[in-house]
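Task card 7
Instruction: Convert sequence to structure tokens.
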Amino acid sequence: MEEIAIRPGDALILVDIQNDFCPGGALAVPDGDAVVPLANRLSRIFPTTVLTQDWHPAGHGSFASSHPGKAPFDSTEMPYGTQVLWPDHCVQGSAGAEFHPALELRRAELIVRKGFNPMIDSYSAFYENDRRTPTGLAGYLRERGFRRVFLAGLALDFCVAYSAEDAVRCGFEAVLIEDACRAIDLNGSLAAAKERMAGLGVAFTAAGAVS
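Output:
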């Protein structure tokens, strides 16, 4: 794979590497903890690292438990569109919401918490799922002069993919570090996400090709 050199104006975004998305967690992504060593290596070589953190209040509207008769991975219609319903996860202040204990945090310059609006889920690091409410990350990156973002973390087909797509829509170049992600792959969601990202011009690479 072609080498990609880190240049001024690049930032690393590590998406939702939290206990509930790792083995043993409430919404475990298969092999999710395998991304941690790669995320740590990447954070050491990028000049700037941003972390995102799912941060839901109890009873969040995206939880299946908030919808009588619904089960995890069913879907429902919300004011902003179709919403997959999840097991309760990443509840504010819970152990499941904490970052994986082996994830190195000291180089992170910003932590973006998302999903705290009780009635709107937030996959993307840039926008809530209504596609209108910004997290403020785009403004932060622009004001600091970043032009290209590299993304890794959990889960590739949801929060990472939505973040990559929105990065492009916000005017940034986006590079997905594919082997530093893991996916849920719910009803073909992985293939669909990769197709969407490629169609928007998101580039794909591996951790070993970035230096």
